[in-house]
């Protein structure tokens, strides 16, 4: 196997599908609300932040990167006053099996015998500068966990690994939280999103923050006239490729056969996962499952 970058990109897209719906899962939100969080507010990020345990909002914001720190602080304040992080993770774990049964019947069973190779991939990577990956890896499922749920949890670790790698690259290139939101518009259909600013604004950034983000991108040559330039487009696509290169060692440890089986199992359900997000969150949310490069990257 020579082209691990392409297979890693394919696995990354499949991982986004497999995990992303959890952010707006109605039964999970209801159970989160039952813990005492008013209206279940903040579940979209709370289940990810919970893996970090009791952590300062500023540190949590550093791990999520593109989400406005004030949003992160507000979410932690809400759930911190009502419950604990272990209870939030228990809500997440309990939602996996019924959620997948509803969206993609039979998929959990297909994933069951991939748990071992997926965890092998998780264990093959060092934790350095990968906080969300490390936090999730430390919370291994018990031996009596459904193997398909275990596979989901391992895939979530690998998804967080990819995210941590991406943010490390962004930080090394002096991109702030608003800039990365604006640049991600390169990856989606702008006609669907309506604006190159939609993603950055969806992360809680106001007009003044958006203006500063455009100013920074223009100073770097990545934007012109409050729009991403051709150089910015090339830069963002290259950043995606570099992220895949950094993440490839984990999937290489999973193995070519198991990684291909993982993708083959999930890809037929892509439309169902997107439909679930559309129904529970609305169109445009979870841009990682809507990338315009998805088809071409998977076909290569």
Describe the structure.
The chain is globular and about 55 Å long. α11 (177-183) crosses α14. The protein has 18 helices and no strands. The chain has helices spanning 4-20, 26-34, 43-49, 57-64, 69-80, 85-103, 107-111, 115-123, 131-137, 147-172, 177-183, 190-193, 198-202, 207-219, 230-254, 256-266, 270-280, 294-299. The chain starts with a helix and ends with a helix. It has one domain. Helices cover 67% and strands 0% of the residues. It is an all-alpha fold and 300 residues long.
Briefly summarize what is shown.
With 300 residues, this protein is mainly alpha-helical. It has helices at 4-20, 26-34, 43-49, 57-64, 69-80, 85-103, 107-111, 115-123, 131-137, 147-172, 177-183, 190-193, 198-202, 207-219, 230-254, 256-266, 270-280, 294-299.
Annotation field: number of helices: 18
**DSSP E strands, number:** 0
Task: Please indicate the percent range of residues in DSSP E strands (runs of 2 or more).
Answer: under 5%
The number of domains: 1
Return the average pLDDT rounded to an integer. 96
Class based on secondary structure composition and strand pairing: mainly alpha
Spans of at least 5 consecutive residues with low confidence = 295-300
Order of helices and strands, N to C?
A: HHHHHHHHHHHHHHHHHH
Question: In terms of topology, how is this protein built?
Answer:
Elements (H helix, E strand, L loop, with lengths): L3 H17 L5 H9 L8 H7 L7 H8 L4 H12 L4 H19 L3 H5 L3 H9 L7 H7 L9 H26 L4 H7 L6 H4 L4 H5 L4 H13 L10 H25 L1 H11 L3 H11 L13 H6 L1
Helix pairs in contact: 1-10, 1-15, 1-16, 1-17, 2-6, 3-5, 3-6, 4-5, 8-10, 8-15, 9-10, 10-15, 11-14, 15-16
